[in-house]
Specification:
Strand content: 35-45%
Number of helices: 4
Low-confidence stretches: none
CATH architecture: Beta Barrel
Radius of gyration: 13 Å
CATH superfamily: RNA polymerase II/Efflux pump adaptor protein, barrel-sandwich hybrid domain
Number of domains: 1
Helix content: 10-25%
Number of strands: 9
Largest sheet: 6 strands, antiparallel
CATH class: Mainly Beta
């Protein structure tokens, strides 16, 4: 199990696991629960340059369609093909096998990212 306190979070309900200049990105369990059963995931291609706060993908569920926002400036290094093939991984393991993309970060600046406690407080409101 991933140590949720070691992750960074966004107000748009993404999490980041930062290792050097690479960030693994997914959506939080809160977002997955609110979406409902995920049936389709559209992710950017590897090599796509992304800018923090811009829409880079889509997550469709039986209840709604949600947008995936880039949590940081960088370049998509890899996408999780397993999630594309089995979108339900987003629901069953959002912090593990349900990760979405890996980004090579243009900066290791963490401005605007939340701690676990800050994110929990945000979603409790």
């Amino acid at each position: 199990m991933t140590d949720l306190t070691s992750l960074h979070y966004t107000a748009e309900h993404e999490w980041l696991l930062i290792d050097g200049d690479t960030a693994t990105v997914g959506i939080t369990d809160y977002a997955a629960e609110k979406l409902g059963d995920v049936v389709y995931v559209d992710l950017p291609s590897a090599g796509t340059e992304v800018e923090s706060g811009t829409v880079v993908g889509e997550i469709e569920s039986t209840k709604s369609v949600g947008e995936l926002f880039a949590p940081a400036l960088g370049t998509v290094l890899e996408i999780n093909d397993a999630v594309v093939d089995s979108p339900d991984l987003v629901n069953s393991d959002p912090f593990g096998d349900g990760w979405l993309i890996k980004i090579t970060l243009a900066s290791t600046d963490r401005v605007g990212l939340l701690s676990r406690d800050e994110y929990v407080a945000l979603t409790a409101e």
